[in-house]
C-alpha cells in the first residue's frame, strides 16, 4: 500500500525572488540551458566548472576530453554574460568516489560511482565551493524535478520527482541526496524534453547546442574496467565455471523465486532474497579469467569464451575463491532473483517523514539500475534491514548497486544491495 501524502503545495518562490545561483557548467548542453533559463528568469548566475580527475589510466582515449569541456563551458559563460570559475576537486573525488570504487570491487561488489559523485561531490564539495563564492543555491542539468511542500507540522519537505522526459529521467542518480542537500538544489530543465533543451540552446546560440551527451563514469569517462582497476587491484588467474540449468531443478531458491507475496513469512523471507550459492562443483570449467573482482553480475562482454549458441552471462562471482560463474542465454535462471536485501545501515530516506519503521510493510515501485522500467515490489522493514520482494523475478540484481523506491513518480528512498 502506497502511503498517502496530505500536504499543501508551496509556491515556486524562486521565480519571485532574485537569488545568486551557481550552475555546474560541464560543457554539455543540459547544464548550459539550465544556466540560460535561470539567467532569463532574472537571477544572478555564476558558472562553475569542476575538474575532478587527472589520471587517464584505463580511460578510452577521447571519451573524457575535459580540456575541451572546459573551453566550451567558458564560451557558454561568455555567451550568457555570467562570471566563470574553475574548481579542482580531484583530491576529494579520488578519496570519496574512486577509492570507494576500488574498495567495493575488491570485495566483489559493483558500485555506482555516479550516485556517489552526486552525493559526495556535486551536492557536497562543489556546494561548499559555491557557497564560498556567495551562492545561495546550486543548479545542475539533471532531468528531475524538485517540489517543496509544507507538512501538517508546518515543516518544509523537499520532494524529488522523476523528470518529464521518460528517456532522460535521472532521479535515480540522485537517490542518495539528503533533505539538506535538496534544499539547496535546483533542476531548471527537469520539466523539459531533451529535444526542447537542444532547441533552446540552438536559439540562444550556445556553443554546446550540438555537443553529444557524455558517457561513462562521472568525470572519468568510458573506461576499460580491468585496466582501470589494475591501478590498485592485481590480476589473478582463476576458473570460469558454466552453471547448467539443471543445477536449479532441485534448488529450493528456484521455487522461492516463483512465490508471491502471500508466501512471505518470518521463516522464509531470508531465503527469498538470498542469491544462489555456487561452488566449483556447480558446473564445468570452460575457461579462465584474470580476476573475479573485474566482473559483475549480468556482464556479457569480456569473457571471450566461444562454443555456445547463445551469449554467456556472468551470474555470480566469488572473490575469495577467485571464481566466475556463467550461464548461457538471456533466460538463464541464474540471472533472475525474486528479491534483495538492504542492511539497516545502508538504508537512505530521501523523504525522512516517510521512513519505514521495523514491522512496516509497504508497496512501492522499484528500480535497481538507471533507466530500468519501474517494477512493482513489496518492502518489509525488519530490525536488521529491508527485505524487498518483487512481483516478478528481476534480472541482474547486483551487490553494491543502489535500489531506489518510488511512490508514483517521487523517489522516496534508496539503499545499497547486499
Brief summary:
With 418 residues, the protein is of the alpha+beta class. It has helices spanning 29-40, 66-80, 90-106, 113-132, 179-183, 194-203, 225-229, 252-256, 269-272; strands at residues 8-9, 20-24, 44-51, 84-88, 137-139, 144-150, 156-162, 185-186, 238-242, 284-289, 312-318, 323-328, 336-343, 347-349, 361-367, 375-382, 385-395, 402-407, 410-416. Helix 1 (29-40) packs across helix 6 (194-203).
Question: Strands, helices and their partners?
Answer:
Blueprint: E1 8-9, E2 20-24, H1 29-40, E3 44-51, H2 66-80, E4 84-88, H3 90-106, H4 113-132, E5 137-139, E6 144-150, E7 156-162, H5 179-183, E8 185-186, H6 194-203, H7 225-229, E9 238-242, H8 252-256, H9 269-272, E10 284-289, E11 312-318, E12 323-328, E13 336-343, E14 347-349, E15 361-367, E16 375-382, E17 385-395, E18 402-407, E19 410-416
Parallel strand pairs: 2-3, 2-5, 3-4, 5-8, 9-12
Antiparallel strand pairs: 1-6, 6-7, 7-19, 9-10, 11-12, 13-17, 14-19, 15-16, 15-18, 16-17, 18-19
Amino acid at each position: 500500500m502506497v502511503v498517502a501524502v496530505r500536504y499543501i503545495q508551496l509556491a515556486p518562490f524562486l521565480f519571485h525572488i532574485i537569488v545568486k545561483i551557481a550552475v555546474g557548467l560541464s560543457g554539455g548542453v543540459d547544464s548550459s540551458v539550465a544556466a540560460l533559463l535561470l539567467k532569463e528568469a532574472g537571477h544572478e548566475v555564476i558558472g562553475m566548472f569542476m575538474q575532478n580527475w587527472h589520471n587517464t589510466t584505463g580511460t578510452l582515449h577521447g571519451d573524457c576530453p575535459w580540456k575541451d569541456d572546459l573551453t566550451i563551458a567558458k564560451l557558454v559563460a561568455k555567451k550568457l554574460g555570467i562570471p566563470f570559475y574553475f574548481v579542482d576537486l580531484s583530491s576529494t573525488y579520488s578519496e570519496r568516489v574512486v577509492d570507494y570504487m576500488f574498495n567495493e570491487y575488491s570485495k566483489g561488489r559493483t558500485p555506482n560511482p555516479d550516485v556517489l559523485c552526486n552525493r559526495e561531490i556535486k551536492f557536497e564539495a562543489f556546494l561548499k565551493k559555491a557557497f564560498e563564492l556567495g551562492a545561495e543555491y546550486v543548479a545542475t542539468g539533471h532531468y528531475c524535478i524538485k517540489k517543496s511542500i509544507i507538512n501538517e507540522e508546518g515543516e518544509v519537505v523537499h520532494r524529488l520527482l522523476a523528470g518529464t522526459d521518460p528517456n532522460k529521467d535521472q532521479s535515480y542518480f540522485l537517490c542518495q541526496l539528503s533533505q539538506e542537500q535538496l534544499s539547496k538544489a535546483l533542476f531548471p530543465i527537469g520539466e523539459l524534453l531533451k529535444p526542447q533543451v537542444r532547441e533552446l540552446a540552438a536559439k540562444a546560440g550556445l556553443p554546446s547546442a550540438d555537443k553529444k551527451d557524455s558517457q561513462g563514469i562521472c568525470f572519468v569517462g568510458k573506461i576499460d574496467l580491468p585496466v582501470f582497476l589494475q591501478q590498485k587491484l592485481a590480476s589473478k588467474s582463476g576458473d570460469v565455471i558454466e552453471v547448467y540449468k539443471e543445477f536449479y531443478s532441485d534448488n529450493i531458491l528456484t521455487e522461492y523465486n516463483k512465490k508471491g507475496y502471500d508466501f512471505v513469512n518470518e521463516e522464509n523471507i531470508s531465503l527469498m532474497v538470498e542469491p544462489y550459492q555456487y561452488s566449483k562443483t556447480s558446473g564445468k570449467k570452460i575457461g579462465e579469467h584474470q580476476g573475479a573482482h573485474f566482473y559483475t553480475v549480468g556482464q556479457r562482454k569480456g569473457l571471450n569464451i566461444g562454443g555456445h549458441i547463445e551469449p554467456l552471462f556472468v551470474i555470480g562471482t566469488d572473490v575469495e575463491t577467485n571464481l566466475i560463474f556463467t550461464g548461457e542465454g538471456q533466460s538463464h535462471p541464474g540471472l533472475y532473483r525474486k528479491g534483495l536485501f538492504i542492511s539497516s545501515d545502508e538504508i537512505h530516506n530521501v523523504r525522512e517523514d516517510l521512513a519505514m519503521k521495523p514491522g512496516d510493510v509497504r508497496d512501492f515501485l522499484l528500480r535497481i539500475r538507471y533507466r530500468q522500467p519501474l517494477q512493482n515490489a513489496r518492502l518489509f522493514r525488519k530490525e536488521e534491514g529491508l527485505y524487498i520482494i518483487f512481483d516478478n523475478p528481476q534480472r541482474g540484481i547486483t551487490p553494491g548497486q543502489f535500489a531506489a523506491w518510488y511512490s508514483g513518480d517521487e523517489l522516496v528512498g534508496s539503499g545499497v544491495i547486499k
